[in-house]
Specification:
The complex is a heterodimer of chains A (about 130) and B (about 240). Chain A is mainly α. Chain A has four helices and no strands. Chain A is elongated, with a radius of gyration of 27 Å. Chain B contains eight helices and seven strands; from the N terminus they run βαβαβαβαβαβααβα. Chain B starts with a strand and ends with a helix. Classes of the chains: A mainly alpha (about 130), B alpha/beta (about 240). The interface between A and B is medium-sized, with 14 and 14 residues.
Chain lengths: ~130, ~240
């Protein structure tokens, strides 16, 4: 693979790492969800620097140009991150639904207590 | 003016232990602490036991994990103006007799947070956990020292006490994953101080621990990364 492309790929990946780190530093991304970005980027950097690590996979997949392998891996990485995000979003939707329901029930309870209070007041004042 | 002290007991499926633990604190005449049990969405009879025995508690409508549960306790402590808050496990591992030991440095204004440590005196008896777990704890200790320059011996001890400054911080900023080591880093990075005090802990008598196999490499990697990530955060 052309060394220029290797350099561009690695600089790009380091930039991503830097951006993620900045967001974590400012508490815009939580530590928990930053980890998967770190793992994917570090794996990609390692494989770009040392394509030998992939062994025969490139040949087995009949990929002729090594740079295509890197792009393929980046896409896989993005898919992985997207799937994990989809899972997280689904869980959160479930939690929000539950919160809305519980909160609504609490509001009703409070209203009922208020009305009970008002009724008692009226009873007292009428005496 | 008397200082307000709150004992926070996070509990997840502790039907076997919670009443015992609560009574061991309540019947101890040396103390006059407020207690709040945080029922972290237990699926067993924990909630029933809490209600039937009039134990002050907050039942979370969903399970949040130890971090979220304990933070609920800290929010409660903050909103009710407590001077000190103590985290005390609901499984019977912590011993009420050591609460005064972990409170003392706080009352003397020696530091902001005290950790009840199993490993500070070499020859203390009591439950010290498996070899594998101790190795994990010392690795975590190394990384905490690396990012904060402070050596903490018992990095996963949940037996800790904090003062008002830290209550205010934890009420709004408390790590959900691996709370014990990461929160120590949080405190130290904000330039507050931590002291460790020797305590003796008991072996878990009933129920199951929510941390399975500290031997797990995956756990170790995640904790170490979490500690490093926490240490780079910028605090206002």
């Amino acid at each position: 693979m052309a060394p220029q492309l290797k350099v561009i790929a690695i600089v790009f990946l380091l930039l991503i790492l830097f951006v993620i780190t900045m967001f974590v530093k400012r508490s815009k991304i939580s530590v928990r969800y930053s980890l998967i970005w770190y793992v994917i980027c570090i794996i990609l950097i390692a494989l770009t620097l040392f394509p030998e690590l992939l062994g025969d996979v490139t040949n087995l997949l009949k990929i002729r140009v090594a740079s295509n392998m890197i792009f393929a891996l980046m896409l896989v990485g993005l898919f992985v991150i997207n799937i994990s995000l989809t899972i997280i979003v689904s869980e959160q939707k479930e939690q929000i639904r539950n919160l809305i329901q519980e909160l609504s029930i609490v509001k009703k309870k409070m209203k009922d207590n208020e009305n009970k209070g008002v009724k008692n007041e009226r009873k007292n004042t009428s005496n | 003016m008397k200082e307000k002290i709150l004992i926070i007991i996070p509990a997840y499926n502790e039907e076997d232990n919670i009443l015992k633990t609560y009574n061991s604190i309540k019947t101890n005449k040396d103390y006059d602490y407020d207690i709040i049990v945080i029922n972290d969405g237990s699926t067993d009879r924990t909630r029933k036991i809490l209600e039937e025995n009039n134990i002050p508690h907050i039942s979370l409508i969903q399970n949040l994990g130890i971090g979220g549960a304990v933070q609920t306790g800290y929010k409660y402590a903050y909103k009710n103006g407590y001077d000190y808050a103590i985290q005390f496990d609901g499984d019977g591992q912590h011993d009420i007799n050591y609460v005064k030991d972990i409170l003392e440095p706080l009352k003397n204004k020696e530091c902001n947070m005290v950790i009840g440590s199993r490993f500070i005196k070499k020859d203390t008896e009591g439950f010290k956990s498996s070899k594998a777990r101790r190795l994990g704890i010392s690795i975590i200790s190394f990384f905490i020292k690396l990012v904060t320059h402070k050596k903490i011996y018992d990095t996963t001890s949940g037996f800790r006490a904090i003062d008002r400054n830290i209550i205010r911080i934890f009420a709004f900023d408390y790590p959900t994953d691996y709370p014990e080591p990461v929160s120590s880093v949080n405190v130290l990075k904000r330039h507050y101080t931590i002291k460790e005090v020797p305590v003796v802990m008991h072996e878990r008598t009933g129920g199951t621990s929510s941390i399975h196999a500290l031997k797990n490499i995956d756990y170790m990697i995640n904790v170490i990364l979490a500690i490093i990530m926490e240490s780079i955060k910028r605090y206002k």
